[in-house]
């Protein structure tokens, strides 16, 4: 079997689509909480979104992630799997990922996947967050902030993903699509290390020695736990990233990562960086469980294997 395998990319695409469908409602709640626009807690946010926008408010901006995150996830999983396979072959001449998978290989492959994720995922996250945030009443979105001039009664800044992209490029240039990319880099490099590595070791630990590969239940449980761990620990930098990316819908408040951290701490204290922690951890389980299960089962089908094979 060759080192580079396209099946990983195809399976990652399917896993990404599954994760968006499962996780987008809680992702909307997480984004609203982290942007700091007047919600007291998670349940208050859920109640207010439902009251103001009905159940469809939880799926605001999902079309773009559904179309793009599947591709993004395809690249992340494909890069991770093929990088680890390449490192394994280079280290010991074994292209297959066996029980003695090297922690150093997993670590380096995760870091590479994290760096690649920012290049593709930065604009995707930005558009998703802008679409999720634009439904906030203007008076709440600008509460306590110095706002830029806005037309009276302005509510919806964007009419959809394409209009959002065009507006950002027109007003901020191509660099505007990567607003918050540095915070995302600081989130995703350690985040993917705490995503793939726990998944690999948990799935191996759950799987009995007599089995040749993890069962769907082992994949689901290990993937869910890995997602909860990764998203839980990534919350502080995820808050910063969300605030930087939400900045600009109605106001321009932050001048970068350090300025965002400084202003957020000064105005709301240390606890602001753990805003959305519960939502992140809870959302991380079903989202990642669906992602890994979709990935593994589709990879099994594509390869015609009789066992599930870890990435």
Automatic annotation (TrEMBL):
Signal peptide: none annotated. InterPro entries: MCP, MCP_dom_sf, MCP_transmembrane, Mitochondrial_Carrier. GO terms for cellular component: mitochondrial inner membrane. It is found in: Mitochondrion inner membrane. Pfam families: Mito_carr (PF00153). It comes from the Eukaryota. It is a multi-pass membrane protein. Solcar repeats lie at residues 3-86, 101-205, 214-301. The keyword Transmembrane applies. GO terms for molecular function: transmembrane transporter activity. The keyword Mitochondrion applies. Keywords: Membrane, Mitochondrion, Mitochondrion inner membrane, Repeat, Transmembrane, Transmembrane helix, Transport. Its main location: mitochondrion. Belongs to the mitochondrial carrier (TC 2.A.29) family. This is Solute carrier family 25 member 48. It comes from Cricetulus griseus (Chinese hamster). The gene is Slc25a48.
């Amino acid at each position: 079997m060759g080192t580079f395998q396209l099946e990983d990319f195809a399976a990652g695409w399917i896993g990404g689509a599954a994760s968006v469908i499962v996780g987008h409602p809680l992702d909307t709640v997480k984004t609203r909480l982290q942007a700091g626009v007047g919600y007291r807690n998670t349940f208050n946010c859920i109640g207010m979104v439902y009251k103001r926008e009905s159940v469809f408010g939880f799926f605001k901006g999902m079309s773009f992630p559904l179309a793009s995150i599947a591709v993004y996830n395809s690249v992340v999983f494909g890069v991770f799997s093929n990088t680890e396979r390449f490192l394994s072959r280079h280290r010991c001449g074994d292209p297959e990922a066996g029980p003695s998978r090297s922690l150093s290989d997993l670590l380096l492959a995760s870091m590479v996947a994290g760096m690649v994720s920012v290049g593709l995922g930065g604009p995707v996250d930005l558009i998703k967050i802008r679409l999720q945030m634009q439904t906030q009443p203007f008076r709440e979105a600008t509460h306590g902030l110095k706002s830029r001039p806005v037309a009276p009664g302005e509510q919806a800044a964007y009419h959809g993903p394409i209009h959002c992209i065009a507006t950002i490029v027109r007003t901020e240039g191509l660099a505007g699509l990567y607003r918050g990319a540095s915070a995302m880099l600081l989130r995703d490099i350690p985040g993917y290390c705490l995503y793939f590595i726990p998944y690999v070791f948990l799935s191996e630990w759950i799987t009995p020695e007599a089995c040749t590969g993890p069962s769907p239940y082992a994949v689901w449980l290990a993937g869910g736990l890995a997602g909860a761990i990764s998203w839980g620990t990534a919350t502080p930098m995820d808050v910063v990233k969300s605030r930087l990316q939400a900045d600009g819908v109605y106001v321009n408040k932050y001048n970068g990562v350090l300025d965002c951290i400084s202003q957020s701490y000064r105005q709301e204290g240390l606890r602001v960086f753990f805003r959305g922690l519960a939502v992140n951890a809870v959302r991380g389980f079903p989202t990642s469980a669906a992602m890994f299960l979709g990935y593994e089962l589709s990879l099994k089908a594509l390869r015609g294997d009789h066992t599930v094979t870890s990435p």
